[in-house]
Write a structure and sequence with these properties.
The complex is a heterodimer of chains A (about 110) and B (about 110). By secondary structure, chain A is mainly β. Helix content of chain A is about 0%, strand content about 55%. Chain A contains no helices and eleven strands. In chain A, the strands form two sheets. In chain A, strands 2, 4, 5, 6, 9, 10 and 11 form a seven-stranded mixed sheet that branches. In chain A, strands 1-3-8-7 form a four-stranded antiparallel sheet, with no helix packed on it. Chain B is built from no helices and eleven strands. The N and C termini of chain B lie far apart (about 35 Å). The chains are: A mainly beta (about 110), B mainly beta (about 110). At the A-B interface, strand 5 and strand 10 of A face strand 5 of B.
């Protein structure tokens, strides 16, 4: 049971390049989310999914796309990277059981856009 | 305006000393409040979760309190250790069946020095 895995761990992009950040979980959790974390800003929600085929926007969705074709995978796509997207990205998966909500975070991807 | 405010923003204490971190929230209706510990370069890990009816919960040297009337929570760390150096994040969940219900504080950065 690997939990939540993210790849790559580090990435450097040039402005205008595109890439996909991978996220996978093996806990059969229905909910998955993407956050970015910037100094002094805390964790901010980019996109989330409540199940396969269902996604919705979070607080800061511009410049990012997601899809959820399977329960296990929730990739985050940067369409045309900008320096403002330099950040640490965390994927999380979660489940709800009898009103209790448990969320597990991946190790993060540190992205630098030059 | 952020619905979850944490204080102090940062804190430095000597090893062996106690400290208390604060979390004030305006999230309504309230479902639960969770404290996370985030070590540098890693994803957040849950320390405690508290629902409306719980006013104290302990996890080893960590004790969280909740006053749902004043909408305040605290995280008390006893006999601090160097490994307690981390960011501590307060997350409040809104009681809702739709939309994204989590509200994140910006965290308190704790440094424990020898």
């Amino acid at each position: 049971n690997a939990g939540v895995t993210q790849t790559p761990k580090f990435q450097v992009l040039k402005t205008g390049q595109s890439m996909t950040l991978q996220c996978a979980q093996d806990m059969n959790h229905e909910y998955m989310s993407w956050y970015r974390q910037d100094p002094g800003m805390g964790l901010r929600l980019i996109h989330y999914s409540v199940g396969a085929g269902i996604t919705d926007q979070g607080e800061v969705p511009n410049g990012y796309n997601v899809s959820r074709s399977t329960t296990e995978d929730f990739p985050l796509r940067l369409l045309s990277a900008a320096p403002s997207q330099t950040s640490v990205y965390f994927c999380a998966s979660s489940y709800s059981l009898r009103g209790r909500y448990e969320q597990y975070f991946g190790p993060g991807t540190r992205l630098t856009v030059t | 305006k952020n619905q979850v405010e944490q204080s102090p923003q940062s804190l430095i204490i000597l090893e062996g000393k106690n400290c208390t971190l604060q979390c004030n929230y305006t999230v309504s209706p309230f479902s639960n409040l969770r404290w996370y510990k985030q070590d540098t370069g890693r994803g957040p890990v849950s320390l405690t979760i508290m629902t409306f009816s719980e006013n104290t919960k302990s996890n080893g040297r960590y004790t969280a309190t909740l006053d749902a009337d004043t909408k305040q929570s605290s995280l008390h760390i006893t006999a601090s250790q160097l490994s307690d150096s981390a960011s501590y994040i307060c997350v409040v969940r809104r009681n809702s069946n739709s939309g994204y219900a989590l509200n994140f504080g910006k965290g308190t950065s704790l440094l424990v020095t020898p």
